[in-house]
Amino acid sequence: MMKASKLRLLLLAIFAFGLLFITACSSDSEESSTNSNSNSDSSDEENEDRMAIDVFVPTFTTEPPTDSSPVWQALEDYTNTDLTIEWAPNSNLEDKFNITLSSGDLPHVMYVPGKSPSFISAVEDGAFWELGPYLDDYPNLSQANEIILNNSSINGKIFGIYRSRDLGRNGVIIRKDWLENLGLEEPKTIDDFYNMLKAFTEEDPDGNGQDDTYGLVVSKYEGPWDVMQTWFGVPNKWGIDDDGNLYPWFLDDNYKDALDFFKKLYDEGLVNEDFAVMDPAQWSDPVVAGEAGVQVNVLDEGHRIQEKIIDAEPENEDPITVIKAVEGPFGMKNLPTSGYSGMLSISTTAVKDEEELKKVLSFLDKMNDEEAQILAENGIEGRHFEIEDGEYVSLVKDDAGLLAEMDGLNQLLMYIPEPLSLTPDTSELRQLEEDLKLENEDIVVANPAEPYISDVYAKKGQQMDNIILDARIQYIVGQIDESGLEEAVELWRSSGGDDYIEEINQLHKEAQ
């Protein structure tokens, strides 16, 4: 009996221990489950905080990224959003834009190619938020360039965040080897510029003993004349008089001085005789071929010309240099570009209230951060690029699959206040071009009427422009004299010009 009792006690002890063990395990399991649920709740809360944002942007590839792309997902995580991107092929971007616009079913963020009549009409109908009053609240957007903001505005109001491009892109491309052959310095003033062109035309800069070179090459593209006349103090499209009134550039007191300079270049054979009919596609060819020594163009054409020269003449290792401008009677001036390529606008149909608007603006602001720029432009380090000896090296060049994970996501970038993505090591000339673009921003001449949308110009602008531009060419080549210029101005005025001046000044007063 005693043995049986002891056995019974032992079994009871084992049973009790088992209950304690099960209870403990159950408790651990519940705690683990509670922790797991807590983590899950935290994750759910984070996902609930994410804003779903639909974006319409262009694509230049037939296989843009999808939401399975790790770069796309990394951008979502960084900006705390769930992105849906509608890619519009660049080949029919305008059509796709207008179809989407007319549907009324707009995404949160819409790429706008430019200030087209359809976009202006949509703005007037209240389809897009006015963003100007909010920009100062965001660390990147608050640093937007005032000139570019003004250029991209509609009658002074901001309806889209501009996608920044080089404002100070214009400059002068010079055959550096010709300068060295003739013992010349880079030109600093308009007189230096003229003397360089004369030497390039008359002093055998290539040393071949033949009279086969000239100074400046210009095509039928009007840009070089527009750039060079700013050196003389001519305004960019519109000037402002002492009373605060706007007037067109060709009525400026300094315009005739610029025209006389251009005519002098033509009369002395320092510019190509066929410039008025030369195809812009062949514009750089004479510099590459060693026929012309100077081109007034975008600065980055300099390295493209240099690379072609070196391909043809490998021994000529450093044939090109660039300068931003030359000094005229009013100091150093240059003509800017518009400074942007399209805008990202926020629709009032998808973004219903100010609270949502601020979330979308926060997303756009974050897309200007360095990390977001690198993701959208370069991809993920170790997968799409590497840093070797401190230099950026792309890994996607020969891998279509990797490229498809990121190619086009940079269309979401605005680069405000500046580009921060990674670039490969660059040549000395390319670096000079980039440095001068930045320096140019201090000397570019803004167009005070850039924001104003003119009904008169929309109807008659092309015809009016042709009157003045044709007269400029005719004067340069000697087909008309000063009285012919005056007749062209009178024709411009009677063809809608006076109404145009009145309308622009009215818009200007309202904007003030």
Automatic annotation (TrEMBL):
Alphabetical list of CDD domains matching this protein: PBP2_AlgQ_like_1
Domain of life of the source: Bacteria
InterPro entries with a match to the protein in the record: Bact_solute-bd_prot1, SBP
UniProt xrefs under Gene3D superfamilies: Periplasmic binding protein-like II
Protease in keyword set: no
Entries under PROSITE patterns matching the protein: PROKAR_LIPOPROTEIN
Region annotation (Disordered) ranges: 28-48
Biased composition (Low complexity): 32-41
Keyword Ion transport: no
Stretch forming the signal peptide: 1-26
Keyword line: Cell membrane, Lipoprotein, Membrane, Palmitate, Signal
Pfam family, one: SBP_bac_1
PANTHER family: ARABINOSE-BINDING PROTEIN-RELATED, POLYGALACTURONAN_RHAMNOGALACTURONAN-BINDING PROTEIN YTCQ
Identification of the protein by name: Putative aldouronate transport system substrate-binding protein
Organism: Gracilibacillus halotolerans
